Amino acid sequence: MRINAGNLKKGDFIHYQNEIWQVQKAEFYSPGKGSALMKTKIWNVKSGKNIDVTFKSVEEVEVVDVESRLMTFLYKDNENLYFMDEKTFNQYPVLLSSVSGLEKYLKEGDKLYVYIYDERPLSVRAPLSVRLKVVEAEEAVKGDTVSGAKKPVKLETGAVIMAPLFIKVGDVVIVNPETGEYTGREGK
Amino acid sequence: MKIVTKAENLDNHKKYIFILKLIDDFLQKKDYQKIDLPVLSPALIPESYLEVFETEFKFLDKKEKLYLTPSPELFLKRLLAYKIGNCYYLGKSFRNSDPPSSLHSFEFTMLEFYKVNADYMNIADEVLEMLRYINKKVKIHPPIRRAKIKSDLGLKINLDKWEKISVAEAFEKYTGIYEKELFNHQLFLEKAKKKGYQVEKFSYKDVWSQIYVQEIEPHLGKNGYPTLIYDYPKEFAALAKLNSDGQTAQRFEFYINGVELGDCYTELSDWKEQKDRFIKEYLERKQNKKINHPIDKGFIQALKYGFPESAGIAIGVERLAAVFLNLNSINELKVINIE
Fold first, then answer.
1. Is B18 part of the contact surface with chain A (CB cutoff 8 Å)?
2. Do B210 and A37 touch (CB under 8 A)?
3. CA A152 to chain CA mean position, Å
4. Contact map slice: B 259-318 vs A, CB within 8 A
5. If pLDDT is split at 50, 70 and 90, which confidence band does B277 have?
């Protein structure tokens, strides 16, 4: 379907330079010289790259119908992450390059939305947060009360993040998988 | 749309009000006369790419259409023709059809000032001095210091001078489009097409402005100094005087951190040429199906009457304040906002 770029909104998928991109940001802009424009930030579903693109607001853009389907994460190899559609039991490989590091925070059995276009998997929608168990952490030194001080901890998926000093082995931490930032600890 | 109260922005709002005062102080110290003006007018300057707000005055069975002014230019220039000398307006202006964003609101505060016996580069000097004045005062004013404002401007942008770049130099540097292509519509559109832009069904102005925003604007005001980009193609002359080369106009815009803050012209004083441009803009408005407001003919009369050599600039004050206060959006300055 072709629409005017002025109608693009966050979340839309578009064809641009022979690739599929998702709109991350779309802002109308009237520069006071020439016609109105649509400034967008778009995300390449294959490479995971973000770029800024300015469209004329009345320029036509091809919007593609991408479906997001809830699937179970099975395993990964050097190239792909493998997901299963629980309704059809079909398996879908998703290129590692498209998930920008998200794989470091996934464990078997996690349920995620996979973007499907024309029965081909494009990428995975990153969850806002993931909960993971800490498997390695140094003991906090008593008396070390510098506020905001952090130490590296290893999570059950193998990822290493920076966490506050009070985090111990066995704690479940909440992490933003897009940035790898510690955002909290699960209450016991 | 709804009315949104944001009392939590009061601190920012106070600083914004303080910056308005600094602008008044600066210009009045330099003998610019402040003028209060109507915002409703029965006629406007035709501007092809702006949409206006239309309303109606009603009294018994009498009705008359009125329009909210998109800039105070038509009024201030009349006064200049009456030889009132250097003057300014600091108040609301209105532009329709632009959805609100982090940098734009359909109702906004504009500073427009004019200097007689001056050209655009004289205004550039004045603006830089004003920026320094605001920066100095914003830093030392106690409420602002107490609020621990991160004065990015003071740290990252040096206001000692402009980074001056002509439009032609900027196109060559940032887009690889050379001067001979820039001013020739056909060559320009061919080059744009090669670069991957849609050019079919679009005018030179449309494609030009798309490339400018996509490839040039992001670099402006980011090299340690505010950027002054000058001498736009004559197609963007609007009410500016042409240079002797015949292909560029004496217009500049200035940027800090990729954000356009002001637009300046050496004012066109030739009434015949102004009339021709009005007709062109009027026809373009019609073609673009914009609101068909009456043209301000009195403006042409005023030019005929004897318009002084002068230059003027329009500055978006909320944007300017947002830059000084290191905010992400002009909305963070507002305690009441229509969203």
1. no
2. yes
3. 22
4. 260, 263
5. very high
Residue type, A90: N
The span from the CA of B77 to the CA of B71, in Å, is 11
For residue A51, what are the CA distances in angstroms to A16, A37, A45, B103, B218? 11, 16, 12, 20, 13
Q: Does B144 score more than 70 pLDDT?
A: no
Digit-coded pLDDT (tens) for B51-77: 999 999 999 999 999 999 999 999 999
Alpha carbon distances (Å) from B80 to B5, B41, B75, B109, B251: 40, 18, 9, 22, 19
Q: Looking at the predicted structure, is the pLDDT value of residue B154 above 60?
A: no
Quote the pTM value: 0.82
What is the model's pLDDT at position A140? 67
With 90 as the cut, is the pLDDT of residue B45 above it?
A: yes
Give yes or no for residue B317 having a pLDDT over 50: yes
Nearest partner of B49 among B13, B15, B95, judged by Cα: B95
Interface test with A, best of B209, B235, B236 (most A CBs within 10 A): B209
Strands A160-164 and A150-155 turn out to be: antiparallel
DSSP state of B331: G
Query: B193 and chain A: CB distance < 8 Å anywhere?
Result: no
- Rounded to 5°, the CA angle B16-B21-B22 comes to 95
Number of residues that make up chain A: 188
Supply the DSSP symbol for A165: T
Contacts 24+ apart (CB under 8 A), B151-154: B151/B324, B151/B326, B152/B257, B152/B326, B153/B256, B153/B323, B153/B324, B153/B326
User: To the nearest whole angstrom, how far is the Cα of A110 from the nearest Cα of chain B?
Assistant: 36
Q: How far apart are CA B123 and CA B137, in angstroms?
A: 21
Nearest CA in chain B to A32: B49
Give the other-Cβ count within 10 Å of A110's Cβ.
Answer: 15
Q: How far apart are the first and last CA of chain A?
A: 50
How many CA atoms are closer than 13 Å to the CA of B3, on its beta-carbon side?
3
Return d(Cα B267, Cα B273) in angstroms, integer: 12
Interface test with A, best of B110, B206, B236, B239 (most A CBs within 10 A): B206
- DSSP sequence for B244-299: TTSSEEEEEEEEETTEEEEEEEEBP--HHHHHHHHHHHHHHHHHTT---PPB-HHH
Kindly state the helix (H) or strand (E) to which residue A134 belongs, with its residue range: strand A130-137
